[in-house]
Amino acid sequence: MRIVEDLWAPEPPERDSVITFGKFDALHLGHQSIFDEVVRQARAVSADATVFFLHPHPMKLLDPARCPASLTSLPNKLRLLESFGVDVAIVGRFDERLRATAADAFVRHLVERFRAGSLVVGHSVRFGFRGAGDVALLQRMAPEIGFDVTTMPAQLVEGEPISSTRIRIAISAGDLSLAHRLLGRRYSVVGRVVPGEKRGRSLGFPTANVDAGDQQLPPLGIYAGETTVNGVAYASAISLGVRPTFRDTGVWLESYLLDFEGDLYGEEVEVGFGEKLRDEERFDTLDALKRQIRDDVAAVRRSTMQENRTQAS
């Protein structure tokens, strides 16, 4: 997949394009239906399946205090787009220039810069300065500039439209099962492994301390899940909390990778959250803490075996 980081650079594309554009924060099932249509149309005419997305979230610039937590880090978004069959990803850096671009000027530039013969958009898409652009504008511009417009309907789960807001609420409430159904995959965060206090190692369960940045996190607690390192997924016992036994400050995301040996410092890993095993609690002794961790690891093994049986059936 080719990554374009400068929307305005006058670099001629090698092929025509079929393009979609949007914030695409979650890359949920609704977004994936749009990407599928882009790929389908692009393959039919030997064009590039192209996705333009905003990064960072527009609220980072417009109102940082109200900006929602991220549902997909940039590295994870690019990896997922490639897995969906996208040929070109345009990283739309949301800055003053892009913010001030009129809706019709944005469309004209996108179509001409990337030789787009077709645009595929969601039914409620808004774009351009103050969100003035919509499907009606695209339909008016299409015959003038010379492109086709395909509008995709909302995708429903349990009778309600899929949306990034709905996913964010589900994760915040700890309803990871609903988030999974809306995303079409396990909810995960991507971050770099940073040095910790090495307490897990001293307890016999070395953990990877993951810097999740501004990504959305579920409620504090202990989770079963998996951690992916260099494309290999390891069943994991995941701790998200304040480590009350040690009276630490701040929230820590730690993952103990079952059956893994090696040094992860500095590595970028993906931590996927499965079922919540228990709330975080304070232990009076380290021996009591170690016994509980052993129980947690055993619960992760049972959960992983159950998932494997379910997938095989």
Share of helical residues: 25-40%
CATH H-level name of the largest domain... which superfamily?
A: HUPs
What is the SS-derived class? alpha/beta
* Count of runs of 4 or more consecutive helical residues: 10
- Global morphology: elongated
Structure in words:
This protein is of the alpha/beta class and 313 residues long. The chain folds into 2 domains: 2-152, Rossmann fold (3-Layer(aba) Sandwich), CATH 3.40.50; 186-312, Elongation Factor Tu (Ef-tu), domain 3 (Beta Barrel), CATH 2.40.30.30. 34% of the residues lie in helices and 27% in strands. It has 10 helices and 14 strands. The protein has helices at 29-44, 59-62, 74-83, 96-100, 103-113, 135-145, 164-172, 176-183, 199-202, 286-312, and strands at 2-4, 17-22, 48-55, 88-93, 116-122, 148-152, 156-157, 160-161, 188-194, 208-211, 221-229, 232-241, 252-257, 268-278. The strands form 3 sheets. Strands 1-4-3-2-5-6 form a 6-stranded parallel beta sheet, sandwiched between helices. Strand 5 (116-122), helix 6 and strand 6 (148-152) form a beta-alpha-beta unit. The longest helix is centred in the C-terminal third of the chain and has 27 residues, at 286-312. The mean pLDDT is 92.
